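A further point concerns the way the authors explain their paired sequence and structure data. For illustration, here is how one protein appears when written out as sequence plus structure tokens:
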Amino acid sequence: MRAGSAEGATDVRLEQLRAWLGTVLGAEPGSLQPISSDASFRRYFRLRHGGDTLVAMDSPPDREPPAPFVHVAALLRGAGVNAPRILEADLEHGFLLLSDLGRRSYLEVLDHENADELFGDALAALVRWQLATRPGELLLYDRARLRAELELFADWYVGAHLGLPLRGKRREAWAGTCELLLDSALAQPRVYVHRDYMPRNLLLSDPNPGVIDFQDALEGPVTYDVVCLFRDAFLSWEEERVRDWALEYREHAERAGLPVPAGRDEFLRAFDWMGMQRHLKVLGIFARLCHRDGKPAYIADAPRFLAYLRTAAHRYAAFRGLLRLLDELEADAGRGSR
């Protein structure tokens, strides 16, 4: 999430939010402290009311309809996961008043000493969320959606950011990579998927963790959220520790009755390949944020995701073509080829 904008008289939606809060709270809300906004158009503000702190969300309905947030929040809470309570809602105008789950995210506090405990809480919450899966509640993470995400890498990272064509043998290598990753993802059992189950979206809370930024949830591959948790945009861990945590999830999920891949090697393969799909997507999104949306800060984390991608691809002979492609793109971009 990015830092929220400051209050100002020219901020029409902020004034509308103030007026709405005054109506639902029965009193002038006082100071609205920007908490954060994300890569979308949503913004969040903390306010005091009585002895409590609450969170107001501004979600412009023409750009970020708030109804999915409300729906997924209900699914999470129904699963026993600590998501915000919706205290008041004006879906037509895109204003929500939420319970405040806490001020510190996992991203701010995780270290090598507390990671096992905090990730243990996060995995327990994730398993509860997945166990609650009911078909028909969320849209499917289907082949078309997964493919569109992969093409963000080709269009925005390779095309717009590197300024390179993807054609001929390079296009063939890219197409083969996509088919392998799509087939693997779609072969996995389907569960509820948060889609950004990462440390910055988990808050220190009681019960722990508080879960936010879930409005884009889908029903999709069982390993997706585990990859999000351990292969993060802002924190990197030793690979051996990541694989131990991933297998800890698999054991917990299997004991709970979730349909995870049966063998350790099969699970880790599904985990790695799902990760590659996500890493390619994220690289495309970061490039799009930079070149289309004027948000260049995200692209600074591209090397982290390229490292994740290469580490996973090196384990599997099937991705030699992808590794050659990455090497060629890197070499051409370094020479300033256009």
Observations:
- Residues 12-99 form a domain with the Phosphorylase Kinase; domain 1 fold (CATH 3.30.200.20).
- The radius of gyration is 21 Å.
